[in-house]
Amino acid sequence: MATIPLGSHLHHRFRLEISKFEIDSRKFKHSSLCSSSKRSSLLKNGAKIGQFRPCYDSRVLNATIRASATSSSSDTAVLDAEVSDDVIFRETFPLQRIHKVEGKIMVRLDGGSDEENWQLTVGCNLPGKWVLHWGVNYVNDIGSEWDQPPVEMRPLDSIAIKDYAIETPFTKSSTIEEADTLNEVNIAFNSKSAIAAINFVLKDEESGSWYQYRGRDFKVRLVNFSNDDDNAVGNKQGFAVWPGPFSSMMIQSEDTHSEGKNENENGNLEESIKSFYEEHPIIQATVVENSMNVYVKRCTETSSSLVNIETDIPDDVIVHWGISKDDSKKWEIPSGPYPANTHLFKNKALRTQLQQKEGGNGCYGVFPLDEETAGFLFVLKLNDNTWINYTGNDFYIPISKENKQDMKVDEEDSVYTDEIINEIRHLVSGISSEVNQKTKSKEVQETILQEIEKLAAEAYGIFRSSIPTVPEIIEEAVDIESPVKISSATGSGFEILLQGFNWESNKSGKWYVELEEKAAELATLGFTIVWLPPPTESISAEGYMPRDLYNLNSRYGNVDELKSLVKKFHQVGIRTLGDAVINHRCAHYQNQNGIWNIYGGLLNWDDRAVVSDDPHFQGRGNKSSGDNFHAAPNIDHSQEFVRKDLSEWLRWLRKEIGYDGWRLDYVRGFWGGYVKEYMEASKPYFSVGEYWDSLCYTYGEMDHNQDAHRQRIVDWINDTNGTAGAFDVTTKGIFHSAIERCEYWRLSDSNGKPPGVLGWWPSRAVTFIENHDTGSTQGHWRFPGGKEMQGYAYILTHPGTPSVFYDHLFSRYKSEISALISLRKRNKINCRSTVKIKKAERDVYAALIDEKVVMKIGPGHYEPESGSQKWSLAVQGNDYKVHQITNNHTMGKYCYVLYFTLAFALVADAARPGDEADMAEGGLNSTRRELSGCTATNVIDKCWRCKPDWADNRQALAQCVAGFATGTTGGSGGDTYTVTTAEDDPENPKEGMLRFGVTQSRPLWIVFEKDMVIALTQELVVNSDKTIDGRGAKVEITGGGITMVDVKNIIIINLNIHDVKEMPGGMIKSTDGPATSRQKSDGDNIQISGCTKVWVDHCSLSKGFDGLIDVTLGSSYVTISNNKFTQHSKVMLLGADDGHHQDKNMQATVAFNLFTDNCDQRMPRCRFGFFQVVNNNYDKWGTYAIGGSSAPTILSQGNKFLAPDDANKKNVLVRADAPEAESMTWNWRSEKDSLENGAIFLASGADPALTGEQQSMMIAAEPGESVAGLTSSAGVLPCVAGSPC
C-alpha cells in the first residue's frame, strides 16, 4: 500500500473552506447505470441532497483547498502551504486502468512491372513506436523455424536479432495524406530468390506489446500457397485498396487465381506469387498510471469527518460509496446530507459524480460523514464502465475517533478507564441487588441499564480508538535532516535505495524526463535515495564505456534535464547517486601504433594514465592495483594527476549537478584506498561500490561456506576505511541456491548468522536481488523467476541498506514492495538492526529482527512464538509472511475494559425483560450466520463470492480472472441479455433463446431468467465478446456442446454441461448474419479452437461424446478453473495433434479443478505449449492423470494427487510418442505437489526460464496439502441474489 508520511507535517495546519466549491450539476454527464437521469431531491429516510455545513477551525487563518488551473503546475487540487492538525488520515493510492484503441494492421504484396521485383508493405495506423520483428523461410526448409533474410533484402535501420530474425522500425508513410496516421515498413525482394515465405509479428516498443495473427506469427507465402495454412495472410485474395495514391490499384479476386497454378513434380499444385491487400483489426491496450489522494479531516465542532478524494483521471469519475459503522466493513447508506449530484443505487449504496477540476485534468469530491462512521467504503467507476478497486477489494478508509496526536495512551487515559470500570461495577451491583429484592420499579431499572449501555459504548469507543484499523496506514516519516550521525557509507542508516533505471532505459532518449514524472510517487512509496544511470558521454548507449567525463549529454537526456531531475528529487525529499565509472575510460585518439589510448576533452591524458599490464591498450602507467576490465583502457589510479583530476571531477558533479553520492562501477579494478581519497575529496552523503566476483563452488555445486567470497568484499570496504559500502553479492548468490534448490538452510552460516556481508558488516552491506546487469534484458544472473518477493521480504526486513530494482517496483510486485517498505520504516529497521535466526531448514527460513519483526520465507511453516508478546500478521505473499509486534500493555488494558464492559452488558441484558427473542433473532446467532455466509477459499473466488451484491454488479466478475486468461473481458461493457426460454433453433434462433444471444456481434453479458435445461439440437457456436453467466439459476446444457472457433474474449461460468452427443451438422447460425453450413461436431462438451482469451470457471462437466474440454489449433491465453469433472474417459485436451505446430504458442492455466468419480485420463493431455497446472484435486484416476507429447512445458504446482489403489497405476504422468531419452528432456516439473496413496511424479527436464508475461500471469501456488479446501466449491455454485455465493 502506498502511503504518505504524516509525521513531519503534523505541526502544520489548514482550513477547509467548503464554500469555495461551486458545484453545478449541469456540467456533469450521467452514467448509463445511474438510477435516474434527473436530479433526485430525496433519498432513503428522507435525507436531502444539498450543500453540507462546513466545519471551521477558529485557530487557523484562511488557507483553502482549491481546484484551480493556477493552483499548481500539474493542475491538481492542492493544499496551501499548511496542513491541518485535524487531518487524521492521508494516503495516495496508485491507480491503473486499461486504455484501448482500435486500429488495423495492413499487409500489401505488390509486384513491379518486370514481374521479378516485388515489395511487401506492412502498415499500422495506431500511434506508437512500432517495430517489425521478421524473418524468412527458404525453399526446402524443414520445420517452421525462422531464418534471417539476405542482407540486400533488409531495409535501412534494420537490426539483426541473434541468428534468426531482423527488427526494422516503422516509418511515417510517404504515400498518404498528412492528416492520416500510417506507419509502415517496406521489404523489397526478388521473386527468383530462394525465399519461400516471410514471417513477422509487430511490436509496440512503448508498451512492450506484441501483435500476432490469431495468436500466431503472420506468414506471407511466396511459393506453395495452401489454404490450410491458418496463419498465412494473402491466401484468399480479394478486391481491396491501400490508403493513399495506391487507392486506384485493384487486386485480383480469388476467382482469377487458377490460371497461375502449376503442378509440381510431386503432383501438388504450386501457385505463382500474386498481389494482395489485407486488413486485420487490432486493439492496442495500454496501462495508464493514475493516482488518487484521499485525506480525512476531523471537524472539531461537530465531531464529524470530511473525506476528500481527488484524482488525476481526466474522464468522468463516479464514486460508488457507503459507510461502515463498525469494523465489519459491511456497506450501509449513511444519513444525509450528501454531496451534490448523488444518487441512490438499488437501496444499497450511493453514487456521486466527482467534480471536474478547472482545466479538465482530474476531478475531486468532498463527502461528509457523521460521528458514528467507523469506515468509508468505495469503488470508482469510469465512463467506459471500468471499475477500479483496491487489489480486488473495496477501498476502505478507517475513520478514527481521535486525532493522530491524541492516539498515544497516557496515564490520564488509564485513570479514566479505571473510573469507567468502577462506575459499571457500581451500577451492575446495584441493579443485581434490586432485581433480587424486586423493590425498584421497572422505570428505575431501565434508567440504570441505560447508564450501563452508555458506559459500555464509551469503553468500546476507547478500545477501538487505541488500535489502528489498518496498521499499514500510519507510517512514521524519517526526516532526512535529522541529527542522526551521517556516514558516507550508510547515510542516516535508515536509507532505502531504488535503482532508477534498467538496461533499456537509454533507448527513449528522454529517461531523465520520464523519471522526473515519477519522483513524487517514489517519495510516497518511501524511497530515500535513487541511483541514477551514468551521466557522461559514452561509446556504449548504456553509459558504461565513458569517454569525455565533462560532457553530460548522454543517451538518457541532456545536462539540463539531468539537473531538473536531481532538483525534483531534492524537492520531494529524495537524494540521488551518480553512477561513477572511473575504473576505465575510452580514448579519443590512437597512438602511433594504432592503439586507442590518447584522450581529449578537459581531461586530455596520454597513455601514462593507462595501466601497463593490459596488452590490449599498451599503457605506460604502473601495473593495475586490481583486476583488469579488458573492453576499455583501465585507468592507473596510482598516478597523482589522475587522482587529482578525478577528485576534482567528482567535486564538480556534486556542485554542478547536485548529486548526493556515488555508485562506483567495477571497483574490483582498483585499490579501495584510492576510493577513500575520492570519498574524502567529494564528501558524499552515501556511496556504494560494485565488487562482483564469483562465489565458491565445488564440482558445480555452491559451497555452504562462502566466507572467502564475502571476505574479499569486506577487505575492499576496509581498504576504503569504511567510507563506502558494497553491494552484498554474497547474499544474492546464496539466495539463488537456497530458493532454486529449496535449501533455505543456506541462509544461516556456521555461527547462526546471515551468511553474506550483512552477517559480518551489516552497516556497509547494500543488499539487492537484481540490477541492470543480472536482470533486465541482459539477464546475466537473473533471480529465480516468480520468487522475487521472497528476496524482498528478506532484504527489506533485515539490516543493511536494501536496494529495489526499477523493473520489480513497476510490476505486479509494486503493492507488496510498498507494504514491506512501510513496515520497515514503521518499525525503524535500519542498517545496524539485529537479527536472530529462528529457523533455517530445507524448506523454511525465519528470523527475528530487532525483537519486533518476525519474517519467514519458503514453502515451509513458521509462526512466531506466543507468550507475553502479541504478534499480528502485517504483510504476506507467495511463500513469505512478516509479523510485527503489537503493544501488549496497551492492548491488554483496553481488552480488559472491553471484556469487563461486554460481560456486564450481557448481565444487564439478561435482566431486561422481553429481550430474549431479539437476541436469538438478531444477536449472536445472526452474526454467526453472517460469518458463515461465504466459503470462498482460492484467489479467484475471494475476488467476488463474498460480496452479497454480486448479482447487481455481474460484470465485475471480469476483474477476477487469473492465470493466462488474465485480461479476458467477456461481455464487459455490453448490454445484459436474458435467456427466457430453453428452446433452441440452430438456423433461425429467436430473441430469448441462448443461441440468439451468443451469436450476436456485439459484447453481451448473458444471464438466465430461471432454472432451465437446454437441449441443444446442434453445437452452440459462440461469437466473440460474450459472457455466459449461469450464476443465480440452475442451468443445464445437453445434446450439442459449446463451440468457439477463431473468436476472443469469452467467459463461461456456472453451467452444468453433460450428456453431449456428436451432432450431424447442417445450417447453423454462428454470427448475427445468415446461418452457414457446418460439418458434424466432435461431441466435446466445450471446444475452443483458434481462440484467445477464454475463461471457463465453476462448471460441472460430465459424460461427453469426445472430450469434456478441448483447446486446439493455436488457442492461447486460456484459464480453466474451479470446475468439477466426472464420469468421463478423455477429459481435457490441450493441443489435438502432433502436426499442429501452431500450438507452440499455446499458454493455458488449469487451476482449482476437481477430477473425481471415474475420470480416466487426460487431466490434461498437452502438446507443444506452456501449461501451468496448479492446485487441482485429483481424486484417483484410471490410466493416468497428466500426459503429453511434442515437448510441452508442464509446471505442476501444489496439486493433490491421490493415486488409485491399483499398484500398476501409481504414475501421475504419461509421456507419449517419443523415445525415453528424448521425452525425459521435456520440462515437466513438480513443485509443492502432495503425492498420496503411493502416487509417483517422475519429473524431467529443468525449470524453464519464464518470460516476464508468464511470471505476471501465473497463479501463485499454495501447498498441495491445502487443495482440499481450495477446491471444496468446485463445479456449479448454488448462488442466490442478495447473498454471498
From TrEMBL:
One of its GO terms (molecular function) is alpha-amylase activity. Keywords: Calcium, Carbohydrate metabolism, Disulfide bond, Glycoprotein, Glycosidase, Hydrolase, Lyase, Metal-binding, Signal. InterPro entries: A-amylase_bs_C (IPR012850), AmbAllergen (IPR018082), GH (IPR017853), GH13_cat_dom (IPR006047), Glyco_hydro_b (IPR013780), GWD-like_N_Ig (IPR056301), Pec_lyase (IPR002022), Pectin_lyas_fold (IPR012334). This is Pectate lyase. It catalyses: Eliminative cleavage of (1->4)-alpha-D-galacturonan to give oligosaccharides with 4-deoxy-alpha-D-galact-4-enuronosyl groups at their non-reducing ends; Endohydrolysis of (1->4)-alpha-D-glucosidic linkages in polysaccharides containing three or more (1->4)-alpha-linked D-glucose units. Its cofactor is Ca(2+). Residues 825-885 form the Alpha-amylase C-terminal beta-sheet domain. Belongs to the polysaccharide lyase 1 family. Amb a subfamily. Binds 1 Ca(2+) ion. Required for its activity. The keyword Disulfide bond applies. One of its GO terms (biological process) is carbohydrate metabolic process. PANTHER family: PECTATE LYASE, PECTATE LYASE 18-RELATED. Residues 1011-1207 form the Pectate lyase domain. Its EC number is 4.2.2.2. Pfam families: Alpha-amyl_C2, Alpha-amylase, Ig_N_CWD1, Pectate_lyase_4. Has pectate lyase activity. It is an enzyme of class 4 (lyase). Pathway: Glycan metabolism; pectin degradation; 2-dehydro-3-deoxy-D-gluconate from pectin: step 2/5. SUPFAM superfamilies: (Trans)glycosidases, Glycosyl hydrolase domain, Pectin lyase-like. Residues 495-824 form the Glycosyl hydrolase family 13 catalytic domain. Monomer.
